[in-house]
């Protein structure tokens, strides 16, 4: 384990972290375990093995990370709608896995009332 994460203080293997790109950020927003610092070389990126897309397992794992966060979780309604739509679409092939994960703890997103993001207007 040798790569820093944007969410946690502990080090991770590269395969456990996301590369901060549009494909990932559009679903997980800024509250995802991104590799720090951001790598600019695409060759190095593929060689090291950072995640550049989100799978159902990834989305469910990030939900579990969000459940454990000590600070309040903030995200736009648009971002959470995209994430829940992604999970719903993927649920067709892995219904039992999704239900088990969602029943294991809180997962309902409630908008933070004092913050309005430009995406939600």
What does this structure look like?
The protein has 121 residues and is mainly α. It has one domain (3-120). Helix content is 41%, strand content 6%. The protein contains 5 helices and 3 strands, in the order E-E-H-E-H-H-H-H. The protein has a 3-stranded antiparallel β-sheet, with no helix packed on it. The longest helix has 14 residues, at 77-90. It is globular, with a radius of gyration of 15 Å. It starts with a strand and ends in an 18-residue tail after the last helix.
**In oligomeric terms, what are we looking at?**
single chain
State the helix count: 5
- The strands making up the biggest β-sheet line up spatially as 2-1-3
Instruction: Assign the structural class, choosing from mainly alpha, mainly beta, alpha/beta, alpha+beta, or little secondary structure.
Output: mainly alpha
| Number of structural units classed as domains | 1
Average predicted confidence as pLDDT: 84
Structural shape? globular
What pattern of helices and strands is seen along the backbone? EEHEHHHH
Gap between N and C termini: 41 Å
**Helical proportion?**
40-55%
Radius of gyration: 15 Å
| β-strand amount | 5-15%
Major sheet description: 3 strands, antiparallel
* Poorly predicted regions: none
Number of strands: 3
Looking at this protein, list some descriptive labels.
Auxin_embryo_med, three-stranded antiparallel beta sheet, 121 residues, mainly alpha, single chain, 5 helices, globular
């Amino acid at each position: 384990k040798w790569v820093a994460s944007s969410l946690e203080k502990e080090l991770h293997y590269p395969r456990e972290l996301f590369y901060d790109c549009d494909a990932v950020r559009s679903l997980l927003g800024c509250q995802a375990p991104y590799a720090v610092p951001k790598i600019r070389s695409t060759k190095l990126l593929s060689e090291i093995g950072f995640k550049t897309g989100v799978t159902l397992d990834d989305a469910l794992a990030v939900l579990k990370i969000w459940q454990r966060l000590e600070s309040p979780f903030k995200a736009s309604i648009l971002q959470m709608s995209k994430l829940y739509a992604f999970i719903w679409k993927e649920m067709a092939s892995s219904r039992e896995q999704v239900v088990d994960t969602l029943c294991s703890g809180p997962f309902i997103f409630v908008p933070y009332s004092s913050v309005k993001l430009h995406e939600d207007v």
